[in-house]
């Protein structure tokens, strides 16, 4: 079974958008950062904007670790999957 870092099946959604706070038209998205992938509830408008809400380094770390928990993996497993995906995209070179 392959680990899909963008899977949000087991991720808890929030009652309001992390970007603007609206409780309407919410979507659970994933965001890829240099620290790892995390999930976040955002509204349709913020999803269209394409960027996650601004936050500090420790917040991103907490969200990445939480998303790993939702996926049932640890940070090293998630990093290995993302590295392999990037390698495939780059044609075998990083």
What does this structure look like?
With 94 residues, this protein is α+β, with helices and mostly antiparallel strands. Helix content is 38%, strand content 17%. The chain has 3 helices and 2 strands; from the N terminus they run E-E-H-H-H. Strands 1-2 form a two-stranded antiparallel ribbon. It is globular. The two termini are 25 Å apart.
Concise structural overview:
The chain contains three helices and two strands; from the N terminus they run ββααα. It is an alpha+beta fold and 94 residues long.
What is the topological layout?
Layout: E1 26-33, E2 36-43, H1 44-49, H2 57-71, H3 75-89
Antiparallel strand pairs: 1-2
Descriptive key words:
single chain, 94 residues, alpha+beta, 2 strands, 17% strand, globular
Helical content class:
25-40%
Span between termini: 25 Å
Mean pLDDT: 90
Total beta-strand segments? 2
Which strand order do you get reading across the main beta sheet?
1-2
Order of helices and strands: EEHHH
Strand content: 15-25%
Name the overall outline.
globular
Radius of gyration, Cα only, in angstroms? 14 Å
What does the main sheet amount to?
2 strands, antiparallel
Low-confidence stretches: none
SS-based class:
alpha+beta
Number of helices: 3
């Amino acid at each position: 079974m392959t680990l899909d870092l963008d899977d949000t099946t087991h991720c808890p959604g929030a009652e309001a958008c992390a970007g603007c706070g609206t409780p309407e038209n919410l979507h659970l998205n994933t965001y890829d950062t240099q620290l790892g992938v995390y999930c976040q509830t955002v509204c349709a408008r913020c999803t269209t904007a394409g960027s996650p809400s601004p936050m500090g380094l420790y917040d991103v770390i907490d969200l990445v670790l939480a998303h790993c928990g939702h996926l049932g993996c640890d940070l090293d497993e998630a990093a290995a999957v993302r590295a392999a995906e990037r390698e495939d995209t780059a044609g075998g070179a990083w």
